[in-house]
Amino acid sequence: MTTPEDAKAPLSEEESSGYDRKILDYIHRAAAHGLYEIRGLGAKRALPHFDDLVLLGSSLSRYPLEGYREQCTTQTVLGTRFAKRPIVLDIPITIAGMSFGALSAHAKDALARAATAAGTSTTTGDGGMTAEERRSSRTLIYQCLPSRYGFNPQDLHSADAIEIVIGQGAKPGGGGLLLGQKINPRVAAMRTLPEGIDQRSACRHPDWTGPDDLAIKIQELREITDWMKPIYVKVGASRTFHDVKLAVASGADVVVVDGMQGGTAATQACFIEHVGIPTLPALRQAVDALEDLGLKGEVQLIISGGIRTGADVAKALAMGADAVSIGQGMLIALGCNAGYYESDGARLPADADYRALGTRAGFCHHCHTGRCPVGVTTQDPLLETRLSAETGATRATNYLRTLALELTTMARACGKHNVHHLEREDLAALTVEAAAMARLPLAGTDWTPGTPP
Ligand code: SF4
User: Fold this and answer.
1) CB 364 less than 6 A from any atom of ligand 1
2) Whole-prediction pTM
């Protein structure tokens, strides 16, 4: 029997750490539907990150550059190992592969225009190359994925470099998904698939099973393109030290390592949160592999997976990357998770559309639905008009320029005339975890966890 004293007692709200509200929701949803959750974007859990590192700016022991008078160069050359025509970029910040199908045609075009305006490259994705993105981009990297959707010799010849995708950081060992609602007639035609039917991309290439076969495939691609185009090999971060060595042994000119914070348009949530290793240790393992082989500098390294700011770029370069690649950040620059979209110069609210998806601006990860409130990841003819290629290009260009400015500002503060002169000695870690994973000293100490004193 409840007494008046009981009614006045405070409610018991002690949350279980093992069965918190997130896990309760997960089990309730699984019990109701018998299906795993599929969603877009990347890991939401807290992971060691570039935020856990700091750059050691100059003081008396180092001189900074005078920002108004002394130049700091950002030029970046990729693919110097075997290709006759390496990729030359104005900045070491590239745009990651994202498919037409996952993204709208306007979004793909916007990214291509932004890449050209900022002097960098953009990348195709699963599903092939659109005419607009080829037209708009000065430098276009053409992905060769396990699915081979939209892969053809004409586009291979018109590309500037080829990226063989072994895996993605959001789902190493897994393939992509494109749900039927995003497969409109144009997407279906490019992928030679029926319209409106859910599609699962393969997770394994059909014509090789290991590095020996991959070497033959790389040789074929080189011969088809007359040894002109650099060949990149992209791996999702897991056993990165060995994977990078095998990619190099297979003949890669450039290795792209995509860490666990990398995004996706649609994948099982269990993959996004529980498979792979964070970008920070992946980068360190990749650099170690190249140094171990004595090929650091000869084979270039691109790191991706959660690169968001110019500080992230500076730290990645200091750790040993030659360039970074950005996916999610570019989508956000286009308007992803903004509360509005632009139409004829006016800002219109998108709140109702987020609500219809069961979310709010700032929390959306619903790319898989095809109902993107801001027109970035949709094939719906009406929603697609919410992002024009012109507006998207302006925003994405501004974002890339901001990153480049921040990068040079920080490099100058470290006394570097060239952003590629940033080095591990310019870094310290703020947490023991980051220090151990990046193998850098904990700030203010000479202690690097896991290394002999
Ligand atoms: S706003 Fe659009 S692009 Fe961003 S997470 Fe939502 S659906 Fe995806």
Assistant:
1) yes
2) 0.95
Question: Nearest CA to 392 among 333, 337, 318, 320?
Answer: 333
CB 359 within 8 A of CB 366: yes
- The whole-angstrom separation of Cα 103 and Cα 334 is 11
In sequence order, the β-bridge partners of residue 77 are 88
| Direct distance between the N- and C-terminal alpha carbons of the chain, in angstroms, rounded to an integer | 66
Helix (H) or strand (E) holding 59: none
Separation between Cα atoms, residue 285 and residue 291, nearest integer Å: 10
Could you read off the pLDDT of 310-323 as tens digits, one per residue?
A: 999 999 999 999 99
CA of 405 to the centre of ligand 1 (A): 27
Which ligand 1 atom sits closest to the C-alpha of 365? 5
Find, among 218, 230, 221, the residue nearest to 80 by Cα.
230
DSSP 8-class letter at 97: B
- Dihedral in degrees, nearest 10, Cα atoms 130, 322, 445, 67: -90
- What is the 160 CA–ligand 1 centroid distance (Å)? 29
The answer to whether the CB of 367 is under 6 A from ligand 1 is yes
> Residue 118's CB: how many other CB atoms inside 10 A?
24
**Dihedral pair phi/psi, residue 382, rounded to 5°:** -80, -50
pLDDT in tens, 1-51: 556 666 677 888 889 999 999 999 999 999 999 999 999 999 999 999 999
Count of CA atoms in the C-beta half-sphere (13 A) of 225: 26
